[in-house]
Amino acid sequence: MASLRLRRVPTLASSLTVPRRSYVRAYSILRTSTDLRKPGNSSLKNAAYPARSSLPGIRPFGTSPVYLDTTVKVPQMAESISEGTLSSFSKQVGDYVEQDEEIASIETDKIDVSVNAPEAGTIKELLVSEGDTVTVGQEIAKMEPGAGGSGGAKEAKEEPKQPASSEQPTSSDPEPKKEEPKKEEPKKEEPKKEAPPPPPKKEEKPAPPKEEKKPAASEGKQEAKGIDSPFGKGSRNEDRVKMNRMRLRIAERLKQSQNTAASLTTFNEVDMSNIMEFRKKYKDEVLKNTGVKLGFMSAFAKAAVLAFKDVPTANASIEGPGGGDTIVYRDYVDISVAVATPKGLVTPVVRNAESMEMIEIEQSIAGLGKKARDGKLTIEDMAGGTFTISNGGVFGSMMGTPIINLPQTAVLGLHAIKDRPMVVDGKIEIRPMMYLALTYDHRLLDGREAVTFLVKIKEYIEDPRKMLLA
Questions:
Q1: What distance in Å separates the CA atoms of residue 399 and residue 393, rounded to the nearest whole number?
Q2: Which of 20-24, 45-49, 212-216, 457-461 has the highest average model confidence (pLDDT)?
Q3: Domain chopping of the chain, boundaries
Q4: Dihedral angle at the C-alpha atoms of 76, 379, 313, 344, nearest 10 degrees?
Q5: Is the distance from CB of 97 to CB of 120 less than 8 angstroms?
Q6: Residues near 402 by beta carbon (within 8 Å), at least 6 away in sequence
Q7: What pLDDT was estimated at residue 403?
């Protein structure tokens, strides 16, 4: 039998040659008090690793979390909107914000878009200024994420209170406090002894004020003379303010409507007695059951929907290149309701009004009006629309000619209700009357159709019971 020869195999650790750089790197990673020359580390027994003091560039690990800055970007607004004007920052550098809290507002051609914080943190830097034009995806601010921003502020406020409380026990002796007011008592007596000086002051006062008043009067005269002009006295200052994007867009659309549509307006008047009596009789019941205040807009919207059955062209539009060469007829009615806001006129849409009752239409109009006033309208709220109703009567308008909202074909204008003498069954009676105005595109609607449509609305409003038969 062959004799077995045992050969000593070196251990893996002893066979490896670790360069000096590895020791330095290992030291920066392990940064604990573990000795590399412990019995278990025989392979590093003779290793000469550097001392910590000789490695100033090596920083030990910390247990506190490290946050990377987060950038706040312009959100996606709509397919047709790629840029806007940053109107205002609601937060400034150093302010703490919660997740989804509004940081800035961007004004576009149609709506205002809010920029919200992607996560909770503190604003570190604003990358753009108010009034700058920004695009979708552009970075507008940097923030340091992390919760508890408000807690730090509270602690900072509490810090000055601690030294005040610590001082109170040391100076809480009542005796020194009493001594201080005693020392102040003679001070109070000193001004009493100074009573004699006032008479000389009185002697000095009359002379200078008289001399001062004279130049003051002359200066006032000089200023008045400086205001004089060939047009008379008064200020002639001018303030120049750049138009916001919404106002520019409105101006562009209205001018486009004037240049494109062959606009014509027809008028009629409607007796509001019956619809006002209807509203007065049922408004409290409706408010109690549905929480909606019954108005006149829903009645005119319902009357227009029914009138489209007789004149469907009023709900159609002209579309196509070069001003349009195709007529689009619709079996649905999306009514645009004109709402005045501080930034301009907006027209949110009540969709599928043909399938709604008056209460449902009133609910939709009230909800859209509130969103418009609060600046919460979205692109979806204003997209589309096949017919527009504009109520200038709420502002006291007696009569007007509304402009068509392209590509629509017609717009109905409502006006103020005024008591006027009317002939009823051969007698003169005082009736609440309203002028109606229908502006229509004569390229699509003829005069006969336009007048018929407006007369139908008049009949439905003067006798609301006809709406049940239509």
A1: 8
A2: 457-461
A3: 70-142, 263-468
A4: -130
A5: yes
A6: 265, 338, 388, 390, 392, 411, 412, 413, 437, 439
A7: 94
Catalytic residue flag (residue 446)? yes
Q: Of residues 100, 228, 442, 463, which has the active-site annotation?
A: 442
pLDDT in tens, 302-315: 999 999 999 999 99
Distance CA 250, CA 127 (A): 30
Q: Could you tell me the sign of the dihedral formed by the alpha carbons of 354, 359, 364, 370, in that order?
A: positive
Q: From the CB of residue 334, how many other CB atoms can be counted at a distance below 10 Å?
A: 18
Which CATH fold topology does 263-468 show? Chloramphenicol Acetyltransferase (3.30.559)
| Catalytically annotated residue among 35, 132, 310, 446 | 446
How do residues 280-306 score in pLDDT, each as one tens digit? 999 999 999 998 999 999 999 999 999
Q: Which residues contact 131 (CB under 8 A, 6 or more apart)?
A: 85, 86, 87
pLDDT of residue 197: 52
Architecture of domain 70-142: Beta Barrel (2.40)
Mean pLDDT rounded to a whole number for the chain: 76
Cβ pair 267, 330 in contact under 8 A: no
More confident residue, 24 or 142: 142
Take residue 74 and report the two structure tokens written for it.
């312009």
Confidence of residue 82 (pLDDT cuts 50, 70, 90): confident
Q: What is the DSSP string of 325-367?
A: -EEE--SS--EEE-EEETTEEE--EETTGGG--HHHHHHHHHH
What is the structure's pLDDT at 198? Answer: 52
Q: Report CA-CA distances (Å) from 56 to 47, 50, 53, 347, 375.
A: 21, 11, 6, 67, 57
